[in-house]
Amino acid sequence: MRPVAILFARQDSIYKTLPGCDVFDMDRDARTFQGGMPVVAHPPCRAWGRLRAFANPRPDEMNLGRLAVALVREFGGVLEHPAGSTLWQAQMIPLPGAGRDQWEGWTFAAPQKWWGHKAEKSSWFYIVGVEPPELPDVPMVLGEATHVVQSRKRQGHRPHIKKSEREHTPPPLAEWLVELARRTKGRS
Question: Which of 33, 108, 157, 158 is most buried, judging by how many CB atoms fall within 10 Å of its CB?
Fold first, then answer.
């Protein structure tokens, strides 16, 4: 089984229970990753997301996103961020459907509800080293999610997810991302 580095994971990450995952959480510090294997990167998104004007990121947080992009480009794998992340423009990552960059990277867009998240949670996946036909099976799910990430609490609206649920990766998505990274070719 090909090992995969999980970068910028939560301390209580589901990845710590998956075989073959070398997990870098806050204590282990992804900035110490030495390479040699494909990566699944979940860099902090609050400095890059739609609500960044209301966020209070640490001074170095934006650089963690840039580092994650560089590591995916060097070793192959995937970076996950919210749809609309400004990291894409800052790092010249192609938008979904816009082709490839000079590292042959491309962006796949999908809601995390397809992998069991309670909310839609639209996400972008920057992928390097795996061709579209080589993706693991994508479990497309139709219909409305049971919850929302955030709304204006209108009467009759779906309930909000908790902050911890916004940050956790659903186990089926974690397994899918690890399998995707294992399929990386020509790197590491």
Answer: 33
